Structure formats: C-alpha cells, structure tokens
Amino acid sequence: MTEPPRVYEALHWASSFLKQRDLESKAAEHLMQNVLQLEGVHYQLHLRERLNEEEWGQFKEMVDRHGQEEPIQYITGMASFYGRHFNVDPAVLIPRQETEELVLLILEKAKKRFQRPIIADIATGSGAIAVTLALEWLEAEVWATDISADAITVAKENASQLHAPSITFLEGNMATPLRENGKVVDVLVSNPPYIATRDWKGLAPLVRDYEPRQALDAGGDGLHFYRQLAMDLPYVLADNGLAFFEIGDTQGPAVVLLMEQQLPDATVNIVKDINGRDRIVTVER
C-alpha cells in the first residue's frame, strides 16, 4: 500500500488539480492549513512532514469539493473577518473583505459623535458586523436582526465563541423587529442583499450555487431592501443618528435618492472603497 505524501507533495498535486479547473491554486494552502490546524511558521516547518492516512483522506475530499466550486469557507466552516475567525455555513453569506471598510468607517465617524451608542445591524447573517462592532466598541449596546432563523443561530454561535459583549439578536424582516420593539438607535448599519435578479443568474457558480440566494438577490433592480430600509429609517434612527449601507458599485445615486426622499433634512453621501468604487452610503441626521 502506497504511503501518504508529504505536505509539499500533496500541495503540488492539489494546486495542479485546481488549476486544471480554473480555480486559484492558493486555495490548496488554506485547505491544508485547516487539515493540519497549523498556520504561519509552524505550518512552514511542517511542509516536509508526511501526512497520515486520515489527514490525506480529509485533504483529498476537501480539494475535490472545492474542485466542484464549493467555497473554501463552507468546506472549512470558517471565514476571516477583521482579524477574527467566524463560523459560516450555507445558511449565511460569506463575509467579504470590502465589508471591513464599512466597519472601519462606522468606528471612525460614530466614535466622534457617541460614547455609549445603541447600534443595530440589519440583515446580520453570520453576525460579522455586529460581533466586530461589539468587540471593537465595548461601551456600545448592539442589536442585530435577520429574517433567517438559521442565520441567527450562526450569528449567536459567533458572538459566543468570540466572547462578544451581550448582543440582542432578533429574528425578523430587516428593521421590522426594531419597530416592533419600539427601538430607536444611534447607529444603524446594513449590508443587505443588493444584487438584481438578472445579475444573480450570471454570478459565478462558486457564489450562485452555494451562497444563500435570499442573502444576495434583491429583486428586479437590486434596490428592494434599500427601499424598505429608507421607509423604516425615520422611525428607528435617532434624531442625531448615523446610518451606513453597503451598496453595489452602480447603486450609489439611486440609494442616495431613496434616503433623501425619506429624510430630506439629512446629509446623505457616497463613500468610495479602497479601489475607488462607490461602496457605502452614509446618512447623518
């Protein structure tokens, strides 16, 4: 019986396997680190070690799944966000790096205005935004909503695992749970579904076939949930409150108009991301 390969040999096989399927070969490294539960120097020092049968079998299975375009984060059950590891599964959208810019902007602007704010994260998904804000701003009171009970379960697990201060999770559609609880917040943030249905159909299989459609598809023009948020904003955002919305890079003017129609006295702006694309709409009452 042939013995399992050394780590570097397994990586060479996996890289070639993924390249043949037009997938990034560096994914092999992420999967191997997950199998070995090693990273950094400890992982590098292990490259010439031989895998055992269990490790080799697990690695081959993971690589095969990714070869069928299943996202690495769902295979490993983990995604990185703001320097922390979050549990993810197919019930929640995989946190994106660009959303870290949203968190940074909130902390930068809101800390100049509030000391102990009430913050609400609408459509929280994995809880990445809510949990990060709770950990980065310990004086804040954080609320989070999602229409998916499964997503709320994942978000609660992440809050517990990362030892976030108490976060109130509410199941329900967008800001409706806040209105039902008579909650008025100082800071409202949302990264809602914003992909138009026609664009969702054209997404890469890696996204379209695995990530939850209800966390991506926002109807015919992609603005459905921004309309809901705009209508709720006057009732849930405090008079001196701030709101932050992640957007698709072509949606800025339309989202600004929706917010200005509901809050004509507010200051509404578009903020570009690190790549110079429209990424965030801010509302200042």
Automatic annotation (TrEMBL):
Protein name: Release factor glutamine methyltransferase
PROSITE patterns documented for this protein: N6_MTASE (PS00092)
Keyword terms, alphabetized: Methyltransferase, S-adenosyl-L-methionine, Transferase
GO-annotated molecular function: nucleic acid binding; peptide chain release factor N(5)-glutamine methyltransferase activity
Biological processes annotated in GO: methylation
Binding positions (substrate): 191-194
Swiss-Prot/TrEMBL catalytic activity: L-glutaminyl-[peptide chain release factor] + S-adenosyl-L-methionine = N(5)-methyl-L-glutaminyl-[peptide chain release factor] + S-adenosyl-L-homocysteine + H(+)
Family: Belongs to the protein N5-glutamine methyltransferase family. PrmC subfamily.
Domain of life where this protein originates: Bacteria
UniProt-listed Enzyme Commission number(s): 2.1.1.297
InterPro entries: DNA_methylase_N6_adenine_CS, HemK-like, N5-glutamine_MTase, PrmC_N, RF_methyltr_PrmC, SAM-dependent_MTases_sf, Small_mtfrase_dom
Annotated residues for binding of S-adenosyl-L-methionine: 146, 191
Residue ranges of every copy of the Methyltransferase small domain listed in the record: 106-199
Job description of the protein: Methylates the class 1 translation termination release factors RF1/PrfA and RF2/PrfB on the glutamine residue of the universally conserved GGQ motif.
Species annotation: Geomicrobium halophilum
Domain Release factor glutamine methyltransferase N-terminal: 9-77
CDD domains found in the cross-reference section: AdoMet_MTases
Transmembrane segments: none
